[in-house]
Each structure stands twice: as C-alpha cells, then as structure tokens.
Design brief:
Blueprint lengths: L26 H10 L14 H8 L1 E6 L7 E2 L5 E2 L1 H12 L4 E6 L5 H6 L5 E7 L2 H4 L3 E2 L4 E3 L1 E6 L9 H6 L4 E4 L3 H9 L7 E3 L2 H9 L5 E5 H7 L6 E3 L6 E2 L2 E2 L2 E7 L4 H17 L1 H6 L14 H4 L3
Parallel strand pairs: 1-4, 1-5, 9-10, 9-11
Antiparallel strand pairs: 2-3, 5-15, 6-15, 7-15, 8-11, 8-12, 13-14
Length: 304
Amino acid sequence: MAPPLQPLRRLRETSGPSRRSLLAGVAALGALGAAGCSRVPTASTADGGDLLDRLKAAGVVRLGIAGEIPFGYIDRNGELTGEAPELAKVIFKRLGVDRVQPVPTEFGSLIPGLNSQQFDVVAAGMYVNPERCEQVIFSDPDYQMLDSFIVRKGNPLGLRDYRDVVEKKAKFATGTGYAEIAYAVEAGYKESDILIVPDQVAGLNAVEAGRVDVFAGTALTTREVVKKSAKAEVTEPFKPIVDGKPHVDGGAFAFRPTETGLRDAFNVELHKLKESGELLRILKPFGFTEAEMTDLTAKELCGG
C-alpha cells in the first residue's frame, strides 16, 4: 500500500488522488469547504501540547475529509457522515468536544492541509504506511482491509488474486490512484495495460459491459457495489502481496506530529470502543463487518 500507490482509504502516495464515488453529496462540499477552511490555532509544542484543551474550550474539532463514500463524505441532505466522521463524533464527545466540523478537500491535500493547520484531524479512513508516517502521526487503525475482485457471474476465468490475473492474461481494471495498481504491477501485470477508471461504480460497469474481465478494489467497496448487479459478483477477499509478503491494510486518523497528547487520548477511547464491540456498531451501517475489525497498530503499519 512497490511504492508509489496506496488507497482509502488508501493511496500510498500522499499527493495522489483518492478513491472517488459517483454517489450524491459531492456538490455540497464546496459550500461547506468555504466555511471550514479558516485556520485552526497554531501547532502545539513538541511534547504533545494543549490542543485537546483548546478544542474542549472551543467545543468543536475540524475534520479533514475527502468526500469519499463510505469513509467520509457529505450526504444528500448536506450532513457530514461516513465511518470516520461518525467514529470521530463519538470519540471527541467522550473527550469533551461536542461538535465536529467538516473541512472538505482533495485526498492528496489532506496531509498538507493538516500540517498547515487548516483542520485538526484527518478523518478520511486513510491507510497507514511508512511514507505517511514520516509526515504525520496516526491513531491505531479502526479497520483493516483486504482486496477483492469484481468479475462476471460465475467468475469464468477463475480469478482469485493478482497472480491469476497475470497468468490468465485477464483484462484488468482498477480505480484512479488505487493501491491495486501497485499490487497488480508487483504481481507482474504491465502497468500500461491496466484500464484506469474513476471508481468502483465505473469498474462494475466495465465488467458488466465486457470491456474488462476484472476490476480490483477493497473488499468493502466491491462487496457493496455488486449487491444490485445481475451480471457481476465479487470474489472472496484476499491479501495482496507487497514486497513478497501477504499484506493487510489498516485505516486510521492522522494528527500533526506535535499532537501526541491528542492522538494518545483518542487512542484510549478508540480501544475502549473496540473492547466493548461498539466500534463495529458504529461502522456497520457503512458496510463494515467483523472481518474488517482489527488489532493492528499504527506502529506495525509504520514499519516498527
């Protein structure tokens, strides 16, 4: 999550575009973005600072989101939702901060926007990887994610992983900036032969129309998008091979490197939600299942 690309939640390269959805809500981003882009207070000191105290006093925390379903987006009614914002609402309420305010931006602008203090926290289901860990600090992941394929009904080519795609010379597609590009290339697929489409909806359409044999995405997004399809199905989730080893991605909240105090307080509440089972209850409406719950740590995903 071979380096430059990683996804949702989720791209390897912080400057790359995010996964996109064609569903409603994008139009509302502009208006909310204009209201939410004022600067937050200056960064805290190196020992963790007092940002949490200032957020409590203000009664609001600004969340950087990327308008990506189901991770963090504005719904048809103009309301902030998604797995990360809904989880943030619960945790920050427990930390004494009553309100969350969305600051919509491009996925590639989330880390620069965080570090330039346009918002307090990245709440976009961002994958944790070593490249990003050099720029921000992460909470422990609130979910883990495997890959899966969209294929035609019956999976006529028997495609189960990226090696199958290469060996059977399947016509392969994935989304703009998706980690799956790098995973396919690592398996031996020629990058110039990959059909790049905007998102999983376009990927499903390409499979149904017979333009490609397979579309690769996260297990969650592929599972959700094929539910109403009469022509396509989703394969069993699997671990892509990264640097020769099976790999599991994990999504988390990102904080400025100086905000260790806020990150640590957030982690305490996150782990309480994991232990009680409430985390799954919060994430379940967005398609997450027990299979996406995880004990992975940010330290592990940062490379030690």
